[in-house]
TrEMBL record:
Protein known as: Uncharacterized protein
Source domain of life: Bacteria
Length: 116
């Protein structure tokens, strides 16, 4: 049995696979005021469709739907099967509160009762 697939069929299969990945994944990258859909997300990086995304480099923000969850420093790594892979040089969790420079106790009373 032969495993040869005509180039037109392979192109159609690749397009269908990318479309399915984009539809299922809610992750997106924002860089330079533009937004790109993430095809695959791994611990050390992510991939984007090579046709949609330029060679990104530097500081980007990752969103899960509308929630900002990572701020990353990235570098373009390699292109394979129509996907551009980007690796994290740094990935910092995004928070909605500013960092504090002092220890906060676990239990904080809601109010104080006074005599009087």
């Amino acid at each position: 049995m032969s495993t040869y697939v005509p180039p037109e069929v392979q192109k159609g299969l690749d397009a269908a696979r990318k479309k399915d990945l984009k539809r299922r994944n809610k992750l997106r990258v924002e860089a330079d005021g533009r937004s790109f859909r993430v095809l695959r997300f791994q611990e050390d990086g992510f991939t984007l469709d090579v046709e949609d995304a330029p060679h990104l480099r530097g500081l980007v923000d990752l969103y899960d739907g509308g929630r900002h969850f990572l701020q990353c420093l990235i570098v373009a790594s390699e292109e394979e099967a129509g996907e551009m892979r980007y690796e994290f040089k740094r990935a910092t969790q995004a928070t909605d509160k500013p960092p504090v420079d002092f220890e906060q106790p676990e239990f904080v009373p809601a109010g104080l009762i006074t005599n009087g």
